[in-house]
Amino acid sequence: MYQTRTNLILASASPRRRELLSRMGLKFSVMPSDLEEETELTCSEREPVIHVQNCARDKVERVAKLVSEQKEFWFLGMDTIVVIDELILGKPRDKDQAREFLNRLCGRWHRVLTGYHLFHRPGGERVSNSVESKVLLKKLRPAEIEAYISTSEPYDKAGAYAAQGIGAGLIQEIQGSYTNVVGLPLAELLEELLRLGVIEPKTGE
Prior knowledge:
The protein is of the alpha+beta class. The chain has helices at 15-23, 48-64, 95-105, 142-150, 178-182, 186-196, and strands at residues 2-4, 8-10, 29-30, 40-42, 73-84, 87-89, 109-121, 126-137, 171-175, 199-201. The chain has 6 helices and 10 strands, in the order E-E-H-E-E-H-E-E-H-E-E-H-E-H-H-E. Helix 3 (95-105) packs across helix 4.
């Protein structure tokens, strides 16, 4: 449906983000950032919107340093967090923290924020933004939580669940963008890329 008009580098290892962008017809390179993400923070330590946008920017900065400055590139970085009880939840570090996250989230509404950062070189233009969705997980029995953790799906997901995977069975309701919960606010990001001239609609051959 779309095509890229310039070199685009995705600074993310997420197969879900890669799949969503590819499904739209975009061509891009993937260079995962080695940024170490924090698993849990209080909102008094970091304001969630600022935190998620800064993490996305930091991922871009790390990758941009590795790429030749002789060619034109747009860099795209993203970060997703879950917020509940004035806590910012990232990816759980182990089984115990995954259990803690799921027990805290089940039966309750929480916020899912994805921040993205776009950086153009050599022009220097930057765009930072974030999108918020709200998610209600159903009330889970302890055995359901243990069974889900045993699939290993929670370990590389913010909040310890995957909306596009087995974790879809845990979700009762979503308000806002579903793809944002997956980790990439597709409609909003495509609009930004169109506005910046990074992509364009793909017409007939």
